[in-house]
Write a structure and sequence with these properties.
This protein is an alpha+beta fold. Helices cover about 45% and strands about 5% of the residues. Strand 4 and strand 5 form a beta hairpin. The longest helix has 24 residues. About 25% of the residues have low confidence.
Length: about 800
């Protein structure tokens, strides 16, 4: 039996050279086993160009699930536009209780800048609660709040359209810009930029991507230790529950009260209830709307929470327009403590029906600490208030960051329906569709956005950047067009990098970084002149914007990872990029620093996934350079990162293919380097489910290489006496290859190897008739003179 030539020569080392980058699944170049099929006599890579071992003692110790790393929001597109807990009057603030207003106003200049950044804003009035100056001790009564008889079983709400559980396969551990010389759209630090290299003649035809349904791998169930619970028990006071109790029930239990009318027009009744100063009940029609309990004297928040038996709940601080604390909310109970501004002294307790806004605010405050808790809060907020736009937007961002693509699309589309005019949601939705390889759908969203009148510059820049990425995602990209789109994005966002609003500056710098890296990738992927001179300059400029962005967000490590991933993506497409080793080291250093300070397990998985993708690009760059040293260990480490990061993710077809490619590489390395077919098969067992019926191969025209890969794997199965599996894989490979030949994507002579192997297999099984048939087919394929390009 034989291997296809492109697989057979994996591991051969040679001097750096310009080569065509294969688009199909392929293994990383190992040192071939002398006994395995056919080998090459090319010399090994020089020692000074060897691919470094990534398995440091620290990394090796983590291979079980490497990844005491975590993610932060710094540098991630989208999150820079979200309000934080420590919001200011410029960035916007919110209060969660209806009686205290909705969202605070902003000065016109700042609001205009944030509107330019497409950040959703809402205006409202300030707090209208004024506690009485006369206070007396709280008294002996402790638990003045009573809960409705509701079961304490409110676990994290189920994700929207959550798919059934299907764990990701895991491998067994193994041994061992088009611009001039000074582009008008560039900022001051771009003076030294060279022009984009001149493209060589290329086809101008624009391919049409077949619409996909965005099918993804089913999401594994949430692991128990990461499952947050929300103990939803609305609080009542002396038998009265806001939102449910009626006027008749109130009067029957409390007797007649005295009426009052507030400045906002709300009316109600109040009583003198010991040991409190007074208790006010606001009525809406015949239903109790809220209960306001004025304390006789200030009580420390922690002590009051302990007395009311709610100290075990996560809280969210209520801020005024100056960012000063004026309250502490307990969302699950519908309880808010009013505090003396800037202190921890509670002066009143308010009870209201459960309010989605309080859950949203708590989710915002927990974004940096626990993505799981934020997710649970936002899902519950959407459940009790399906029209809450901000809850949908935040939920969309978290789901996308965690790779929960199907849910992210549904939430994003819901947010779009709730606020069709919001440009930022449209941009984010298009990005999610792009991640799902739904290129046509994403482009449609972007073009509709661009068709709107009076789009702010930042929105236009975001749209142009996306068009550049969409062009690169085509099966036959127009690299010149991609560069043009990125150039427009750079020009539009450059003036905004010095905007007054920090949110706008961050978004603009993020755009500059991504557009510069996108330009470099388009140049590296296309047919251009002077690549070796131009690409380093684009990378240098990307690094400059990464530093500025890191300074803005206050942490450089997440931005550093993005930069390293982007540069290594360029290196994987072109040998004109200088050494890749420093970029790998920088990525691993950033990962280590993150691991020292971030504890959220969901963020850790996100970082693991990003690090794994970065290392995978480094492996591809090493393959293209013929750097074959230590690839098995590096590939195994890369797989470990991707596996750690893939927990709870829904893998898109493209991600499934990437992971399957890596598993295939590792298996081939074991079979060619060590002749260890048994270990190879354990990796191939993980590969096949990720590749089988994966639409990305057909979309990118790689069915031929897919078939040849199946044929190659079949040899290892045959060697370990898994003969039915070997025959099945060989026949599956032949089907893919025949389809590729019919589509004129594969030389018909490539079928000779597959037919010949099947002939051998049937002969050894004693099926002379099948063996003869396939031998004749192999002979005909071998003799064909057709070369299909």
């Amino acid at each position: 039996m034989r291997l296809p030539r492109w697989i057979e020569t994996l591991g051969e080392s040679s001097e750096p050279r310009r080569i065509a980058i294969p688009a199909g699944p392929q293994a990383m170049p190992p040192r071939p086993d002398a006994t395995a099929m056919r080998t090459s006599s090319e010399p090994q890579t020089a020692a000074d160009r060897r691919s470094p071992s990534l398995i440091t003692p620290e990394a090796a110790a983590e291979l079980g699930i490497p990844g005491d790393v975590a993610a932060a929001t710094a540098g991630r597109p989208g999150l820079t536009l979200l309000r934080s807990r420590a919001a200011t009057a410029v960035d916007g603030y919110a209060t969660p209780v209806a009686g205290w207003g909705d969202l605070a106003g902003q000065d016109e200049t700042a609001a205009a800048e944030v509107e330019t950044a497409a950040e959703p804003l809402t205006d409202a009035g300030p707090d209208d609660v004024t506690p009485s100056p006369n206070r007396a001790p709280l008294g002996p009564e402790a638990s003045v709040l009573r809960r409705e008889p509701m079961p304490r079983t409110a676990s994290a709400p189920k994700p929207i359209a959550a798919p059934p559980s299907q764990p990701l396969p895991k491998p067994s551990p193994t041994s061992s810009d088009t611009v001039a010389a000074k582009p008008a759209e560039a900022t001051d630090d771009d003076d030294a930029a060279d022009p984009v290299p001149s493209p060589t003649p290329a086809s101008t035809g624009q391919p049409t991507i077949a619409e996909t349904d965005g099918e993804v791998d089913e999401e594994p169930g949430i692991v128990p230790e990461d499952t947050p619970t929300l103990a939803i028990d609305p609080a009542s006071f002396r038998g009265v529950l806001p939102g449910k109790s009626t006027r008749e029930e109130l009067l029957a239990g409390w007797g007649e009260g005295e009426t009052f009318t507030r400045e906002d027009g709300s009316t109600g009744l109040f009583w003198k209830v010991e040991p409190f100063e007074r208790v006010e009940v606001v009525l809406e029609g015949d239903t109790v709307s809220s209960i306001f309990i004025r304390l006789n004297q200030p009580v420390p928040v922690a002590e009051l929470a302990r007395q009311l038996e709610i100290s075990d709940l996560r809280t969210v601080t209520v801020l005024d327009e100056k960012g000063v604390s004026i309250g502490e909310a307990f969302p699950e109970r519908g309880v808010v403590f009013s505090v003396t501004p800037g202190t921890h002294a509670a002066v009143a307790v308010m009870l209201e029906p459960l309010d989605a806004e309080s859950f949203v605010l708590r989710a915002e405050s927990d974004l940096e600490v626990s993505a799981a808790n934020s997710l649970a809060d936002l899902q519950y907020a959407v459940k009790i208030d399906p029209s809450h736009v901000r809850a949908h937007r935040l939920l969309m961002v978290i789901l996308a960051d965690q790779g929960k693509w199907r849910q992210a699309v549904e939430v994003a589309e819901a947010a779009s329906r709730l606020d069709p005019a919001d440009s930022w949601t449209q941009v984010k939705l298009a990005s999610i569709l792009l991640a799902l390889d739904r290129v046509d759908d994403a482009r449609d969203r972007v073009e509709k956005l661009l068709s709107r009148k009076n789009n702010p510059p930042l929105v236009m820049a975001q749209a142009e950047r996306l068009l550049g990425r969409l062009e690169l995602a085509q099966s036959s990209p127009d690299h010149e067009k991609a560069v043009a789109h990125f150039g427009k994005a750079i020009k539009l966002s450059a003036p905004l990098t010095t905007a007054k609003s920090q949110a706008v500056r961050r978004a603009a710098l993020d755009l500059q970084l991504d557009s510069h890296l996108g330009t470099a990738l388009a140049i590296a992927s296309g047919s251009w002149q002077q690549k070796a001179r131009v690409l380093p300059k684009w990378i240098e400029r990307s690094e400059g914007f990464a530093k500025k962005l890191g300074s803005e967000v206050g942490t450089t490590d997440m931005v550093e990872l993005r930069l390293c991933e982007g540069v290594l993506a360029v290196a994987a497409k072109s040998n004109d990029v200088a050494e890749t080793v420093p970029w790998v080291r920088r990525a691993m250093d950033a990962r280590s620093r993150l691991g020292e300070r971030v504890t959220d397990p969901w963020r850790r998985r996100q970082i693991d996934w990003q690090v794994g993708q970065t290392l995978n690009l480094a492996l591809t760059a090493a393959q293209n350079r013929g750097e074959a040293d230590d690839l098995l260990g590096n590939a195994t480490l890369t797989a470990a990162y991707l596996e750690g990061g893939s927990q709870l993710r829904q893998l898109t077809p493209r991600e499934q293919r990437m992971l399957g490619d890596l598993y295939f590489r590792i298996g081939i390395l074991h079979s060619l380097q060590n002749g260890d077919h048994a270990t190879a098969v354990t990796w191939f067992d993980k590969t096949v489910p990720l590749w089988k019926e994966n639409p990305s191969f057909e979309r990118t025209g790689d069915l031929g290489r897919l078939g040849e890969s199946y044929v190659s794997m079949a040899i290892s199965y045959w060697q370990v006496e898994k003969r039915p599996e070997a025959v099945t894989l060989s026949r599956l490979g032949v089907e893919c290859m025949v389809d590729a030949v019919e589509r004129k994507q594969l030389d018909e002579r490539a079928l000779a190897v597959a037919y010949g192997n099947l002939s051998t297999m049937y002969a050894e099984q004693g099926d002379a008739e099948q063996s003869k048939a396939y031998a004749e087919m192999a002979s005909r394929a071998e003799s064909t003179g057709t070369v299909i390009k």
